[in-house]
Amino acid sequence: MMSFLKGFERPSKKQFIYLLIFRIINAYLLRTYYAADEYWQSTEIAHNDVFGYGYKSWEWTREAPLRSPLYVFIFSTMYNILKYTSLDFPILVAYLPKLIAATQAATFDYFLLKIVYVYFGQTHVLPAMILHLTNWYSLFAIPRLIFNVLEMTLFAITLYFYKLSISKNFKTFDYISRIVATINFIAKPTSIIPLTLIWPYRLFTMPGKIKDKIEYFFLNVFTVLVMIVSSLLVDVLYYKRFTWTVYNFFEFNFLEAGSSLYGTHHKFWYVTECIPYLLLGSVVFFAIGLVKYVSDQLNKRAGLDLIIFMIYFILVLSLSAHKEDRFLLPLWPLFMLFTCYGCVQLKSSRYLKYLLFISIISNIGLFAFMGIHHQRGAFSVVDSLRQQGDRVKSVYFFTECHQTPYYSFVHKNIYMDFPDCKPENRIKGSDSSKLFKYPQEFIKNIIESQNPSHIIILNHFTRDQNVAKILEKHRYQKIAEHGHAMFIDSPIGTINDVTMILMEKQDLQK
Which parts pass through the membrane (predicted)? Predict the structure, then answer.
């Protein structure tokens, strides 16, 4: 076993295969819902583009769209292959994208280990792998379809070749780094945030003649111009009109503060709550690593570039009132660098094995809860809906908006609907809020106006006797019920012991 693990001290293609197998198992083991963007900004958009029916969320349909189509192209390619080979079976359409997620995760794992190797050497690679692959958030978030994972993966590749270009003094590595950074910018504009410091930092600290600095400056300018033109071209080709999602995104989220409609946190949330929550038991190693790294770099009269990059990125993200844990994913390589650095500093300490035990047990325990148990009903109930086949004519989801996968999991051209929560509706009170605040009136109006053949509804509503009478009057019968969560947040506060129920109109059973 030890000889197998030691093989990871110098990352190779063979190790990538092992990482890929691990992430495939990890991806298919995940049975819980995380962020709505995981499906509603990836496979749902691709499904609509390829199969000609589905749903595009407001970010894609507004006059000034916010999303670049580049990430969606990956899933569109997969769906096109299934479509033109007549292999677009609903089960494959629903679950084959997990292979993309697993491949993306394994690619990140591989380059993370390579980053650790080029920064700290092979003695740190194995601790980094163990701490990374036993971290609950790594297991929970990284093998998913959220575009933040692509941003993180491409940034890791960018950082790796950036470091090589300095240590090897080889321009080709710098060009590779810039090409990957450009792709990342097209897919996720926020990926440029760390580069707005990394490139100027390199410019002012690089050795050599003034001619070299001028050349590097104009190379940065040229790269940014290529980024802008490329992203603009992709947007115009996809949306078939002149629009630039980079500016639209900046305008909506920062100038108009539109993202604050989807939740806010205080300015220091990333530091005081988010990072400790993500690292959990290994936060001790992270803290020790930070302190020791600063001390060692100062003693060597070396730069503190990694620390500066991390602080800068967090400060920029903290300017927005809307904060989410997944927004820190691009910093994951730096988190793991400092975490493994702190772990290695304790290699001769008698407390190391206890700290490792606490770290691994706490992380695996939280992953078991978050990755397998919490919010698991979102997939199970839609699986049950898909299995009803041609019996399903129309569906309404009496849940908060975007709380389950949608057409990409049903793969059937039928009418489906859910409570609307577009930004303009959130200002005056979204349908989601109305559903939870006035469930009897809302459910009655939907059933009488839409008459869906099937509904998916939270047991929180069916516990209400008046709602139960409405469902009984309109002949809805429960055909499946799936445990969902011990608790969920809602517009009216926390709801406990939540299940998701699939109901069918009784007259369909004749």
Answer: 16-34, 70-87, 99-120, 140-162, 216-239, 268-291, 303-321, 327-344, 351-372
